[in-house]
Amino acid sequence: MSRFALGALLLCLGGAVTWAIGNVVSRAAKVPGGLGLAAWAALVAALPAYLIAVLVDGPHVYDVAWQAFGWRAAASTAFTVVLSSLTGFGIYNTLLSRYPSSTVVPWVLLVPPVGIAAAWLLLGEQPNLPELIGGAVLIAGVLVAQRPSRARAREAEPVSVVRP
What we know:
It is built from eight helices and no strands. It is mainly α. The chain has two domains: 15-98, no CATH class; 101-149. The longest helix has 28 residues, at 71-98. It is globular and about 80 Å long. The mean pLDDT is 82.
């Protein structure tokens, strides 16, 4: 395995671990609304992200970024911050505080297929066969995860009592 493949694997595993920790913290916080939690989490993540960028690309990275910053970057940042992060995570954290994790978390699997569909509709990007297959697998995973288990189905069935 090449160094870059190992680095990518470690980043994916790190993302999964921090996502799981975030879910546990979100459930334990029992906040009535998820927006505040999402806003504070965004503030906490800024300093490590800044330090990693400086360590990886050097201190000049921000000079280059400011020179390239324009209206498209501002619009993209606003979309990412307001719609994706604050709104998306606000809704997600609110749902996570009200429902079991096993009910909420599988819906996150729909993010990549929705992204592929949005890029197709809005940008004209044609998804390739592996992307379509992967999206179908993720959608199937959500459907399977949301099916009631046999034990829950039995609990929901009315119990008939035979009286003499």
